[in-house]
Amino acid sequence: MAPTFRHGKGGIFTCSDTGGTTFTLSSGLNECSLNTVGETADVTTFGDDDRAYIAGLRNHTLSLTGLFSSTHEARLRGMVGNTTASNFVFGPQGNTTGFPKLSGAFHLTAYDVSAPVADVVTVSLSGQITGAVASGTF
């Protein structure tokens, strides 16, 4: 069966704030990226001619960019450095029944606001996911 491709314009991203209230950032975002990297450990020993590795831990990060919203300003700023992880749900194609859903918990590690003199005010957010990312469907 051939894969079904979808446009990213329907993507959604929701997360919880420091009080545990879920809110939607989708209307202000124009890019969301969830990155997963598998670490390896070097197990090369004397006498080997080539390096050998074993699989290690996975590391997941979030990167979000979009347009600044004063509605979310205090909420997002308060999440940076918060000791309690925030829950998130990312739907790369949207939240229609059957579409893929990635979810988990993360710590917001960076919140940057940029205001160029000749353009729109933008935001950039980075997050460190803690634990596994659950892959399911809406």
Enter the CATH topology name.
Pnp Oxidase, Chain A
Strand order of the largest sheet: 2-1-5-6-7-4-3
H/E element order: EEEEHEEE
**In this structure, how is the largest beta sheet organized?**
7 strands, antiparallel
- The low-confidence runs, each spanning 5 or more residues with pLDDT under 50, are none
Total tally of structural domains: 1
- Assembly classification: single chain
Give the percentage of residues in beta strands: over 45%
Integer average pLDDT: 96
Tell me what the structure shows.
With 138 residues, this protein is mainly β. The protein has one domain: Pnp Oxidase, Chain A. Helix content is 5%, strand content 54%. The protein has one helix spanning 73-79; strands spanning 12-16, 22-24, 29-42, 53-67, 86-91, 100-114, 122-137. A seven-stranded antiparallel beta sheet has the order 2-1-5-6-7-4-3.
Helix/strand layout:
Elements: E1 12-16, E2 22-24, E3 29-42, E4 53-67, H1 73-79, E5 86-91, E6 100-114, E7 122-137
Antiparallel strand pairs: 1-2, 1-5, 3-4, 4-7, 5-6, 6-7
Which terms summarize this structure?
7-stranded antiparallel sheet, 7 strands, 138 residues, Pnp Oxidase, Chain A, 54% strand
